[in-house]
Design brief:
Helix 1 (13-34) runs antiparallel to helix 2. With 131 residues, this protein is mostly helical. The protein has helices at 13-34, 42-69, 75-90, 94-97, 101-129. The chain has one domain (12-129): Four Helix Bundle (Hemerythrin (Met), subunit A), CATH 1.20.120. Belongs to the hemerythrin family.
Length: 131
């Protein structure tokens, strides 16, 4: 379900590879949702959320460093959006996960899908087009 498509590519190898990894994390969540054999998915959900937060932080740092190096004029607004993403991941209520694990995985999927596609298309692609 989650895959890095050509229309999301910036043409910057390292950033495109990092975006691909973020899509892979979304795909892990999707596969977990569809896994009918795992009854208790709590630990795997927590693992995906923690990995998503850690990897996104690394990605954002690298992306922001690149934007700084080219003196990208929308760097500040990008930083704000990146911080909002990190705050949303950090605000996850791990107690809520156990109430309805599949519903929570759907929330994660919707969050990742919306954020990644909208952010890449509306913001990140401008990095290489409007410099």
């Amino acid at each position: 379900m989650f895959e890095m498509k050509d229309e999301y590519r910036l043409g910057l190898v390292s950033i495109d590879e990092q975006h691909t990894k973020l899509f892979e994390l979304g795909d892990q969540a999707y596969k977990l949702l569809k896994d009918r054999y795992s009854i208790d998915k709590y630990d795997k959900i927590v693992e995906i959320i923690k990995e998503l937060g850690a990897y996104a932080a690394t990605h954002f740092k690298d992306e922001e460093e690149y934007m700084e190096s080219i003196r990208y004029r929308k760097l500040f607004s990008q930083k704000v959006q990146h911080e909002e993403f990190i705050k949303a991941v950090e605000a996850v209520n791990f107690n809520k996960i156990d109430d309805n694990q599949d519903e929570y995985i759907m929330e994660i999927l919707n969050f990742i899908a919306k954020w990644l596609t909208e952010h890449i298309i509306k913001e990140d692609l401008l990095i290489t087009k409007n410099n």
